[in-house]
Design brief:
Structural class: mainly alpha
Order of helices and strands: HHHHHHHHHHHHHHHHH
Organism: Salinibacillus kushneri
Strand content: under 5%
Number of domains: 1
Keywords: Membrane, Transmembrane, Transmembrane helix
Protein name: Sporulation integral membrane protein YlbJ
Pfam families: Gate
InterPro entries: Gate_dom (IPR011642), Spore_IM_YlbJ (IPR014226)
Shape: globular
Largest sheet: none
């Protein structure tokens, strides 16, 4: 009966979305254009180099090398192998869903167990600094210094999630023999891993490009469809209806009603939620608390991307979902604690005044990087897609 009910709910949901798109074609088109613009200009060109580099590093055994070196601190802290340090670092540098992508890759390579992969994926999906500092802090709040607070809350919150999730699946964990730190052993592991992958360099590079493009195409599809769904929920007055129930919870924790609808939007899609939050009349601290939770939760759009990636392995999605809830609460709590020392006091020391909304350093590295992607991103995306088509065409001809 549960299976039949699930089938009915899924079919009804798909039918509802289809009818809503037909009834609201203009809103659906605008939301779709917004989603594809974000993917075309920012997401694809910024994530592609990280994805390709990660694939090559895994194939050449470099990840295994650093895994051996980082085992002494990754195991006690997070109860995951040292290779998790590479996933953690790349997840922070490139942004979601890189953590899930690399965790799935390590699991497919059998470098980590199923339980270790579920621990790892729960805290290695983070937003990249470009999005936090350039898009949110500068683009929405017009204050670069705010990005430091948001980044610290986001990344430290993820660290706490990793500490909590180290206890997940403890009974299933079989402790390994402790080995002393050895650079020689790390090089031996690197060499053995490279020998196991007997593909020539050209094949490795081509596979890295094709796999990265396929993943990014999937990510683009999720960004567009969730952008459309979010817009349709507003057009059909479903979001305001849900917001009325959320206002009661917000009143208990001391948050104004005006943040309820931006919060719901952020639960679906981070960018829109952060933008709407910045435009409300709530105090800056209240806005930051909501933005920190939304960033930590990742939004259903990113979670759907992660679920799609994990579906190719035996890694369960539920531990990741629990980690997102924990991350949201940790980041919001850190925002309350660190707002004064990291932002208000720093702003007073540098300007002698409490923050103003129109402050922004137009010569900021992050602002210039964002402008670079917006200007050259589409050309990089188009060039990469062309290269991918040529690689596939060349392989088809050889077959």
């Amino acid at each position: 009966m549960n299976g039949k009910l699930k089938s009915i709910l899924l079919a009804s949901g798909a039918l509802f979305i289809g009818i809503a798109i037909i009834q609201n074609p203009k809103e659906a088109l605008e939301a779709s254009q917004r989603g594809i613009s974000l993917w075309w200009e920012i997401v694809f060109p910024s994530l592609l180099p990280f994805f390709i580099t990660a694939e090559i590093l895994i194939a050449f055994g470099v990840v295994r090398f650093f895994g051996v070196l980082c085992e002494p601190f990754m195991r006690p802290l997070f109860n995951v192998p040292g290779a998790g340090s590479f996933v953690w670092a790349m997840g922070m540098a490139s942004g979601y869903p890189s953590g899930a992508k690399l965790t799935a890759r390590l699991r497919q390579e059998k470098q980590i167990s199923k339980t270790e992969a579920e621990r790892l994926v729960s805290f290695t999906n983070a937003s990249n600094p470009l999005f936090i500092i350039a898009a949110i802090s500068i683009g929405f709040f017009h204050d670069e210094q705010l990005g430091i607070l948001l980044a610290v809350c986001h990344y430290v919150g993820n660290f706490f999630v990793g500490i909590c999730m180290r206890f997940y699946g403890k009974k299933e964990y079989h402790p390994r023999l402790k080995q002393p730190l050895s650079i020689k052993r790390a090089f031996e592991e690197l060499h053995e891993t490279r020998l196991k992958d007997n593909r020539p360099f050209g094949k490795i590079l081509g596979d890295s490009v094709i796999n990265s493009i396929q993943t990014l195409m999937m990510i683009g599809g999720f960004i567009i469809i969730f952008s459309v769904i979010n817009r349709l929920l507003f057009s059909l007055n479903i979001t305001p209806f849900i917001g009325q129930f959320l206002q009661f919870i917000f009143s208990i924790v001391g948050l104004p009603d005006v943040l309820s609808i931006p919060f719901i939007a952020g639960m679906f899609e981070i960018t829109l939620g952060a933008q709407m939050t910045s435009e409300t009349t709530a105090t800056l601290l209240q806005q930051i608390v909501i933005v920190c939770f939304v960033l930590g939760f990742n939004g259903l759009s990113v979670q759907a991307q992660v679920a799609s990636i994990l579906a190719e392995t035996d890694i369960r999605f539920f531990p990741y979902f629990i980690g997102r809830i924990l991350h949201g609460f940790f980041a919001s709590l850190l925002a309350l604690i660190l707002f004064k020392p990291l932002y208000s006091d720093a702003k007073q020391a540098s300007t002698g005044d409490i923050p103003v909304s129109d402050y922004v350093n137009t010569h900021s590295f992050w602002a210039e990087l964002l402008q670079y992607f917006q200007h050259y991103g589409p050309m990089l995306t188009l060039l990469t897609l062309l290269i991918g088509v040529l690689i596939i065409f060349h392989r088809r001809r050889k077959e």
